[in-house]
């Protein structure tokens, strides 16, 4: 199948990044969200990232203009009728994703692949709400999408081999390195990353060390680019909690219990960088 148009559903930090790398790879992109202000903000982020590339001499003004000209904005999922490939990147919530996949299944052409950027939810379950489970696949990008090389590709129970191949090829065209993973809670990335972040939160909860000290240990001691609590703020504490819940419920193992301090912060609305406060304060 020859993919020309990619629709990205969800214009937040992940969706806008996916739209950017898709447009940079030469695809026509429809960036969609429920409100105009959300798609405008997503486009604004892309604009800023591309401008930085121009300033750094990595891209010409003309290339930037060409990339932006390939992106159209939408607040109507019915625009999926123009898409060959869809990447859903909305909030980590099965009910919300199921609703979107049902709608996409109804409006997208029969040949269109429906991919989810879910970071932990079962692809097989998402696929089951559609009439095309063989064309549903997980395509999990890392944050910040324009910078991070990895795409975890997750086959659902019924995902067709040619759909896997197409998704792998697209990831490479976007300059990413695809890694194949099976459909288990948290896949590989979050099964390994989130318990580490959760354990770092326990260190603060139990008074082992301050957030600054925990982050310093992991940065200077393990050469991580950012400490786990800074990273948690960057990902979003609500997302971290949700993924821990998925692991806890999916494996039924107490080693995945979310730290009570994480729950408390999320209940307080301390969601990390996006809300201005998490383990650190942001202006
Ligand atoms: N969007 C686009 N580009 C960005 C960016 C963003 N949000 N943030 C940083 N960059 C770019 C910068 O422009 C810079 O590029 P140049 O040097 O070429 O201009 C480059 O990244 C490095 O940035 P900085 O020098 O400002 O800062 P840094 O060296 O600390 O790097 C970082 C920033 C790349 C984010 C680095 O801190 C890092 O790798 N952090 C860990 C990221 C990580 O673990 N991501 C995975 C999160 S988990 C996930 O996504 C999965 C999930 O399901 C939850």
From TrEMBL:
Domain 3-hydroxyacyl-CoA dehydrogenase NAD binding residues, every copy: 6-183
Presence of the UniProt keyword NAD in the record: yes
- Gene Ontology terms, MF aspect: NAD+ binding; oxidoreductase activity, acting on the CH-OH group of donors, NAD or NADP as acceptor
Identify the pathway.
Lipid metabolism; butanoate metabolism
**Is 4Fe-4S among this UniProt entry's keywords?**
no
The residues that hold NAD(+) are 10-15, 33, 92, 97, 119, 143, 274
- Where does the entry annotate site (Important for catalytic activity)? 140
Its domain of life reads Bacteria
**GO BP terms in the entry:** butyrate metabolic process
The 3-hydroxyacyl-CoA dehydrogenase C-terminal domain is annotated at 186-282
Keywords of the record: NAD, Oxidoreductase
**Record family assignment:** Belongs to the 3-hydroxyacyl-CoA dehydrogenase family.
Return the protein name.
Answer: 3-hydroxybutyryl-CoA dehydrogenase
């Amino acid at each position: 199948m020859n993919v020309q148009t990619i629709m990205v559903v969800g214009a937040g930090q992940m969706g806008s990044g996916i739209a950017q790398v898709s447009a940079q790879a030469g695809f026509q992109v429809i960036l969609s969200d429920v409100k105009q202000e959300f798609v405008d903000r997503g486009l604004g982020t892309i604009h800023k990232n591309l401008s930085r590339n121009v300033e750094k001499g990595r891209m010409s003004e003309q290339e930037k203009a060409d990339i932006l000209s390939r992106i159209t904005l939408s607040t109507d999922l019915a625009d999926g009728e123009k898409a060959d490939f869809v990447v859903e990147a909305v909030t980590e919530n099965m009910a919300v994703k199921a609703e979107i996949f049902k709608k996409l299944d109804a409006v997208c052409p029969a040949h269109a692949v429906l991919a989810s950027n879910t970071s932990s939810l079962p692809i097989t379950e998402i696929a089951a709400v559609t009439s095309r489970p063989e064309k549903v696949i997980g395509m999990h990008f890392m944050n910040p999408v324009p910078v991070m090389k990895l795409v975890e590709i997750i086959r659902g129970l019924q995902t067709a081999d040619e759909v896997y191949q197409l998704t792998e090829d697209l990831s490479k065209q976007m300059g990413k390195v695809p890694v194949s993973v099976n459909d288990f809670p948290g896949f590989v990335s979050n099964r390994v990353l989130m318990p580490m972040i959760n354990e770092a939160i326990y260190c603060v909860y139990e008074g082992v060390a301050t957030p600054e000290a925990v982050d310093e240990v992991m940065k200077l001691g393990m050469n991580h680019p950012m400490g786990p609590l800074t990273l948690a703020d960057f990902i979003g504490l609500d997302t971290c909690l949700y993924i821990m819940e998925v692991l806890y419920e999916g494996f039924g193992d107490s080693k995945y219990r979310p730290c009570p301090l994480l729950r408390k912060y999320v209940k307080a609305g301390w969601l990390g960088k996006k809300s201005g406060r998490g383990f650190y304060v942001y202006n």
